[in-house]
Amino acid sequence: MTDTQTLPRIMLIATGGTIAGAAGSATEVSGYAVGGLGAEALLAAVPQVGDVARIEARQPFNIDSKDMTPDHWLILAAMVQAAADDPAIAGIVITHGTDTMEETATWLDLVIDTDKPVVMTGAMRPATALSADGPMNLFDAVRCAAAPHSRHRGVLLCFGETILRGFGVRKRDTQRLEAFAGVHGAIGRTRPRLEYFSPATPRHARLPRLDCGEALPRVEVIQAGAGTPPDLMRMAADHGAAGIVIALPGNGGVAETWTDAIAELVQRGIPVVRASRCGQGDVSPSDFDRQYGSLAAGVFSAAAARVVLMAALAARKTQPGFDLNAFFISASGAEA
Question: Cβ distance 240 to 218 under 8 Å?
Fold first, then answer.
């Protein structure tokens, strides 16, 4: 029999999402109610976690992740940091909806100051579905958070028996259970045993503990298609956007009709980031950036680049001498 007092103590922070969803029948995997189940119900479905760790549960909110906002990020970051600062807590597991998981993972990876495992997971099928994936994902996430060799790796995503870095993770499919991909591929797996493919490496640039005040600066993502004029970018800046990310074709190529608008915004002190509409691939610094002052998204999707820019703008407001451009380049991996 397991001596539970010797097991690591793990903080479970439940935020809602499909993993906590319920449908009218076991065969329904769409059109379900998201976030109906609380943390205790999630744990009750996986009693085996009691053989792995002692769980302490928190539920700051129970929402569909499409309704996640920067205000939720601030609440979540404060809760995660408090758990990480508790010497009795060995690791943290966060259940989260998949739609905006990459954004929350990016945010937490930038602002949480700890070497303890912080592991995110969720599900593509509601808890009531046949072969629901949430219980196994939760079990594996707890195993991952409890494993000593999960330390020093930043925020992790444990999903579909695969372990990914939160840094650069992307949701790549709207339906498949293997919905996520990492920019550099998987870093580990949970079957047939929990293992990592390489030793922990130094983390990318991370913000010092961030005092964001009441709200994060507003950053907008503007989609650029063939022939799209830059009007919406100028309009966003005129209506309070402190930064702009452009989801551009291919590897972040800028149409000539956008050049003047980008230069104008940069001159106004509004950072502009070139990102790609493509599902995978980097956007590297170019002569365009050097000439017009824009930034390249590097490994980040447009959605994740927005989060990095919001965090960097918040740091610039509160930390004298903070170099936003240098931080963004370092964080995004977009070294020239």
Answer: yes
